[in-house]
Design brief:
The complex is a heterodimer.
Chain A: E1 26-30, E2 36-41, H1 45-64, H2 67-82, H3 85-92, H4 96-116, H5 120-124, E3 126-127, E4 134-142, E5 145-149, H6 156-167, E6 171-175, H7 182-192, E7 201-204, H8 208-217, E8 223-225, H9 232-242, E9 248-250, H10 264-268, E10 270-278
Parallel strand pairs in A: 5-6, 5-8, 6-7, 8-9
Antiparallel strand pairs in A: 1-2, 3-4, 4-10
Helix pairs in contact in A: 1-8, 2-4, 3-4, 4-6, 8-9
Chain B: E1 21-22, E2 24-26, E3 29-31, E4 38-41, E5 48-52, H1 57-76, H2 79-95, H3 97-108, H4 112-133, E6 155-159, H5 165-178, E7 182-186, H6 193-204, E8 212-214, H7 219-227, E9 233-237, H8 240-250, E10 256-260, E11 266-269, H9 275-287, E12 299-303, H10 307-318, H11 339-354, E13 358-360, E14 376-379, H12 386-389, E15 396-402, H13 405-413, E16 420-424, H14 428-437, E17 442-445, E18 464-465
Parallel strand pairs in B: 1-5, 6-7, 6-9, 7-8, 9-10, 11-12, 11-16, 12-15, 14-15, 16-17
Antiparallel strand pairs in B: 2-3, 4-5, 10-18, 13-14
Helix pairs in contact in B: 1-7, 2-4, 3-4, 4-5, 9-10
Classes of the chains: A alpha/beta, B alpha/beta.
């Protein structure tokens, strides 16, 4: 007799915990071939707000952690992901070999970003030679809470937008790929077991068109990454809403996730702080 | 303490030749505007200085077309050639510095001592600085691999404020041109004259026509610049209120945007600070340029234990400030830029009183004509008071107190703005601890209101985004 499998309940990831949507709603997720996979949580405005609260609460601790510590934790995320290669390859579906390549690329991307934690300030900062007796230093600092609409690519795309946001000390709320949200929740399990403080990454599953405008308009969100938004009207709505508190906005892009990412994604959600002090005796 | 008697020491106006009317500067020529011309006045006397053309959206369109046409030529020039044009401009600015400084003080109302010793040297330095970048962009380290040097964006639409008319022009035009962009710039309605003199400098430098276009007018001219579909980049310095409108207008267009907006900076004085230096810094922080400074230290946070001592010293110092004729070389505080701005400062100050803060100004005789406001302090200010929250953009300082460094940080950051902050203490580790926690783009420690072309400037939060100055200032004008 074949054994009946024990299925996983896919929930949200907020503040380090895995709650269901407060709305009690869910939506069916199917494979590329149309087979039922699971019922994912259909997150609500309230869930989005809870996620922002969790991200704000985590910001002081995470941005105040040493870059070395943040790098260690991101590397730990890569380690945990490596241990679950097969699980993620299964969940991504499609050809086994191609799926494993995507998982490996995601792991390598995390390792790449982990190493940036204590180098980004040296690359993006500056000692400015001003015309006077002053020490003048510019350093990059995290902007705060970043709302991210993740791209359709469920794992490599997700990692490629989340890692650059958090490695520099930001915290984030991510709206997972709407059609393929399950790897994002399984990835949350990886995050939850990597010493990443709760609230640094919060993952919502559900409708982009419902969640993104709330996050774009939220007055305690500092940055907005619309990478995964495909609909031009939704982009416009979000950009306009983001103007209210002058969020830093990354517009949708069709990006090749296997290409060298450069420092752009880290730089976008960093602020440059310039400190002056007189030189004298 | 009695104020010293000074003999009048006015700077001569003769160095400036004012025309009775000015046109728009499009494609290297001065042309008529299609809108109803407006007058620009000397805020110190209310005398009309000149009549200035108003650009309609058709005029703006002509300017953008000229800039688009010039973009091909300008962006194709080797960086080293663009650099030489900018060096030329910098030199001509130095040669005509006195003329520009006097004109700036006439049109803006700022003391000649400031336009001569602060604005103009910084303007020339800014062009010198970015001239040097024009042929070194591939070394600016934007982390791009295998794609060659970063590229210019195209036509930049730039809208600037009235508080530092020529300096803001320099902050906008110098990096844009160095990176290979062409520009359409709209100066503020109340201070268009130095921008129009700058147009003449572009001609003397034989800058190719269309590389710099200047369209004068009010808010609707600025809106037309921002909204023009062939503008690739929008840069704005001004109020947060207008910044929001611009961000909304740019939404969905794909235009690159940088905004340098309002502020409500905290100037924090600890009990171990060098009091005399701190007093000078506080005065410079809020009374420099009549307080028409987005990064002005408009909130004084003083440690409770030295509140009385510091306030006494501050009041003594304020009593020696000389308010009056901007062209007098001894003047410390000039005229408020416009009747409208004066009304705003008065309104907010009245609210300050009605909400219960205590208002104080030194005895100070103000000229009968023109727009004037005395240096003003509010003490007993709570964080909830309007004068602690809203940007006044005038010579008005709100004084609050704190007990611990943590409380100072909490209060300093308790604002939607995040442009600048000041810290006064003799303890090095405390400076660094404070600087790390202040959410502001510029932190001045034991100094205030220092600017330099090599130093990035710009805000956190609702003070806008992007940086001007330094290597960081290039990013706004490149496809990175």
């Amino acid at each position: 007799m074949s054994r009946l499998s024990v299925r996983k309940t896919y929930k949200l990831y907020i503040g380090g915990a895995f709650p269901r949507s407060e709305s009690g709603r869910s939506y069916p997720v199917t494979s590329a071939k149309g087979e039922f996979l699971a019922n994912a949580s259909l997150a609500s405005r309230k869930d989005a707000r809870d996620a922002v609260v969790a991200a704000r609460k985590a910001f002081a601790g995470w941005s105040g952690a040493t870059p070395y510590n943040r790098g260690q934790i991101l590397y730990r995320v890569a380690e945990m992901l490596e241990g679950r290669r097969a699980q993620f390859a299964d969940e991504l579906g499609g050809g086994k070999r191609a799926a494993l390549e995507r998982v490996d690329a995601a792991i390598d991307r995390l390792v790449w970003y982990a190493g940036w934690s204590d180098k980004v300030a040296a690359v993006l900062g500056a000692a400015n030679p001003v015309a006077g007796p002053y020490l003048n230093l510019s350093t990059p600092e995290p902007g705060g809470v970043i709302a991210i609409v993740a791209p359709a690519d469920p794992l490599l795309g997700l990692v490629s937008v989340v890692a650059p946001a958090i490695v520099t000390g930001n915290t984030c709320v991510v709206v997972a790929s709407e059609s393929a949200p399950l790897p994002a929740i399984t990835f949350s399990e990886v995050l939850a077991t990597s010493d990443l403080p709760g609230g640094v990454v919060n993952v919502l599953t559900g409708r982009q068109a419902e969640l993104a405008p709330w996050l774009a308009a939220h007055m305690d969100v500092n940055g907005l990454d619309l990478t995964g938004v495909a609909d031009a009207d939704l982009t416009l709505t979000c950009e306009q809403a983001a103007a209210e508190n002058l969020k830093r906005v990354t517009r949708p892009v069709d990006e090749d996730w296997t290409a060298d990412p450069g420092v752009g994604r880290m730089a976008r959600f960093l602020e440059t702080k310039t400190v002056w002090h007189p030189i004298g005796v | 303490m009695a104020i010293f008697e000074y003999a009048p020491a006015p700077e001569s106006r003769d160095v400036v030749t004012l025309r009775s009317s000015y046109g728009l500067f499009i494609n290297g020529e001065f042309v008529e505007g299609s809108g109803k011309p407006f007058k620009t006045v000397n805020p110190a006397t209310e005398e009309t200085l000149a009549e200035v053309a108003a650009a309609t959206s058709d005029d703006v369109d002509r300017a953008v077309q000229a800039a688009r046409k010039a973009f091909g030529v300008w962006s194709a020039l080797p960086g080293s050639e663009r650099a030489k044009y900018l060096f030329r401009i910098a030199r001509i600015i130095q040669e005509r510095a006195r003329e520009l400084a006097v004109l700036e003080s006439l049109d803006n109302g700022k003391p000649i001592r400031e336009s001569r010793d602060v604005d103009l040297p910084l303007v020339a330095a800014h062009f010198f600085y970015y001239a040097g970048w024009a042929d070194k962009l591939q070394y600016a380290g934007f982390g791009r691999t295998g794609q060659g040097a970063p590229k210019p964006l195209g036509v930049a639409g730039q809208v600037i404020p009235w508080n530092f008319p020529l300096l803001m022009l320099a902050w906008k035009i110098a990096p844009a041109l160095a990176c290979g962009n062409t520009v359409v710039l709209k100066p503020a309605e109340t201070t268009p004259l130095t921008a129009l003199l700058f147009a003449d400098i572009c001609r003397q430098a034989e800058l190719p026509p269309g590389v710099v276009n200047i369209v004068t007018g009010a808010g609707d001219t600025g809106a037309a610049v921002v909204a023009h579909p062939d503008v690739d980049k929008v840069a704005f310095t001004g109020s947060t209120e207008v910044g929001r409108i611009i961000a909304r207008a740019v939404a969905g267009t794909g235009k690159k945007l940088t905004l340098e907006l309002g502020g409500k900076a905290a100037n924090i004085v600890f009990d171990d600070a060098a009091i005399d230096q701190a007093v000078e810094g506080v005065v410079n922080g809020i009374f420099f340029n009549q307080g028409h400074v987005c990064c002005a230290g408009s909130r004084l946070l003083v440690q409770e234990s030295i509140h009385d001592e510091l306030l006494d010293a501050l009041k003594r110092r304020l009593a020696t400030l000389r308010v009056g004729d901007p062209l007098d070389k001894n003047t410390d505080v000039g005229a408020i830029n416009s009747a409208e701005q004066l009304a705003k400062i008065r309104r907010l100050s009245e609210i300050g009183e009605s909400e219960g803060a205590e208002r104080w100004s030194p005895a100070c005789e103000l000229p009968a004509k023109g727009f004037w406001f005395p240096p003003t302090l509010f003490t007993g200010v709570a964080q909830s008071h309007t004068v602690a929250r809203e940007e006044i953009f005038g010579p008005v300082l709100s004084v609050l107190t704190f007990r611990t460094p943590a409380e100072a940080v909490e209060k300093a950051n308790n604002t939607p703005y995040g442009l600048s902050a000041g810290v006064w203490t003799e303890k090095g580790s405390r400076i660094l601890w404070m600087a790390e926690r202040l959410r502001a783009g510029v932190v001045w420690a034991n100094t205030f209101n220092k600017f330099d072309p090599a130093s990035p400037f710009g805000g956190y939060k609702e003070s806008g985004f992007g940086r001007e100055g330094g290597l960081h200032g290039l990013e706004a004008y490149l496809d990175v």
